Amino acid sequence: MHLLLSSQIARTLLSLSSRAMSLSSYKSLLREKAFVNGQWVNAANGESFPVYNPANGELVCKVPDMGAADATAAIAHAQVAFEAWRGKTPSQRAALLHSWERLIQDRCEDLAALMTLENGKPLAESRGEVAYGASFIRWFAEEGIRVTGQTLQGPTPDKRIFTLKQPQGVCGMITPWNFPAAMITRKAGAALAAGCTVVIKPAEDTPLTALALCQLAADALLPPGALNVVTCSRSRAAEVGRVLTTDPAVKHVSFTGSTDTGKLLLAQASSTVKRVTMELGGNAPFIVFDSADVDKAVAGLIQAKFRNTGQTCVCPNRIFLQRRVSQKFLAKLCERVAEMKVGDGFEAGTQLGPLINAAAESKLERLLADAKQRGGRVLAGGQSVKVGSGAGHFFQPTVVSGLGRDSACFREEIFGPLVAAFEFDSEADVVELANDCRVGLAGYFYSADVGQCWRVAEQLNVGMVGVNESMVSSCIAPFGGWNESGLGSESGVGYGIEEYLNLKTVVLNLA
């Protein structure tokens, strides 16, 4: 008994010690000013806005609440910096990007702690995101060196045609709160490697990770003006976004976020015919056929659905189970869900952190109420959870079955730890159900039938498909959606960097 108590006390002390170390380590990268032209600056209006820890509602710090004038100034500095940055060779730019990537890897613990503090995701997930984010910088540093054109014989013997790929210019980037490091590095890494300069507006909930990345970029000796971050509150987001999408000096806008906001930004960007990359909302199907390895499918769903507490754009949203395997799958899933720990991201063993804010919690409650009203059965979870002071917004991992396509869970992106299960009879039926959607970012299915794997992968109207696999994103693979899930591709061999390059044709007369 005494040994058991001693062991429990030791684990508790270790957990508290790890938490204290994590919470203190982030301070070395905490910045309370925006980063423009290599300088830490306040807003021109002198105002600031608060950043809170979503796990407990505590104030972390305040950062500048910038407006249109600040965004315009940042763009002007980026335009000046562009002329020198584009003049560097791809190898020179790559060397600086590699230095930035190494510093990010070296400061992984500090960055992860800062991310968990402002985003809430478990510390282990934050560490994973730091490594994932760094991989994009490393990848694009090498991609920049491999950018090439073509030389062609002209239509007559005295002509030669060749193509050049040249950087577009200043790129405006609007990034989300759910992956505050990786969504910046995936965009900025590509643009910088191509020879562009960038102005980033990070999400108001998570600006601190963006600013920490700027500090490491400065330490890596990226030149002033190449990387700029303009911070602003939710009330000024539209104002700053409008500048990034309409200023003629900005040649490209990259956005990750909701489809509705993406449509608005697209309309604004059309005023100056900017190039755009849009990674918008998803409503991913996750299909389990009766030939599937059920244990593998359950593990895959757990990994993809509950990462970042279900707050990801490629998160499985509509879970389609072939009738013969449905009960077995749900029973195993509920066993796993019952074991999951909800809590503060700094606490050892936490698998689900808080939702980002009260609106996210209210949305889950509304979706769950709608599901019950339409005959859905709650098999696991189903309610909010009080953790610590009770100021955070935590929700149990929840499983609901017996739903139809009339439910809100079928039509809306859930963005939380709620599994909405639907049954189907045939391959043709489930493909039709999966494609009954205006968006098409990712899709997943599990099957042991090789022919079925080929057929369904080809028939799903999405940009990315996981076949017996639940993780579809990496620096190697193109990332992008179909239909109202966006435009363009991020990452991948050639694709991601091409977004930031202009193609020029040169015809040379030899006569």
UniProtKB/TrEMBL annotation:
<comment type="pathway">
    <text>Amino-acid degradation; 4-aminobutanoate degradation.</text>
</comment>
<feature type="domain" description="Aldehyde dehydrogenase">
    <location>
        <begin position="40"/>
        <end position="506"/>
    </location>
</feature>
<dbReference type="InterPro" id="IPR016163">
    <property type="entry name" value="Ald_DH_C"/>
</dbReference>
<dbReference type="InterPro" id="IPR029510">
    <property type="entry name" value="Ald_DH_CS_GLU"/>
</dbReference>
<comment type="similarity">
    <text>Belongs to the aldehyde dehydrogenase family.</text>
</comment>
<feature type="active site">
    <location>
        <position position="279"/>
    </location>
</feature>
<dbReference type="InterPro" id="IPR050740">
    <property type="entry name" value="Aldehyde_DH_Superfamily"/>
</dbReference>
<dbReference type="InterPro" id="IPR016161">
    <property type="entry name" value="Ald_DH/histidinol_DH"/>
</dbReference>
<dbReference type="GO" id="GO:0004777">
    <property type="term" value="F:succinate-semialdehyde dehydrogenase (NAD+) activity"/>
</dbReference>
<dbReference type="Pfam" id="PF00171">
    <property type="entry name" value="Aldedh"/>
</dbReference>
<keyword id="KW-0560">Oxidoreductase</keyword>
<dbReference type="InterPro" id="IPR016160">
    <property type="entry name" value="Ald_DH_CS_CYS"/>
</dbReference>
<dbReference type="GO" id="GO:0009450">
    <property type="term" value="P:gamma-aminobutyric acid catabolic process"/>
</dbReference>
<dbReference type="InterPro" id="IPR015590">
    <property type="entry name" value="Aldehyde_DH_dom"/>
</dbReference>
<dbReference type="InterPro" id="IPR016162">
    <property type="entry name" value="Ald_DH_N"/>
</dbReference>
<protein>
    <recommendedName>
        <fullName>Succinate-semialdehyde dehydrogenase, mitochondrial</fullName>
        <ecNumber>1.2.1.24</ecNumber>
    </recommendedName>
</protein>
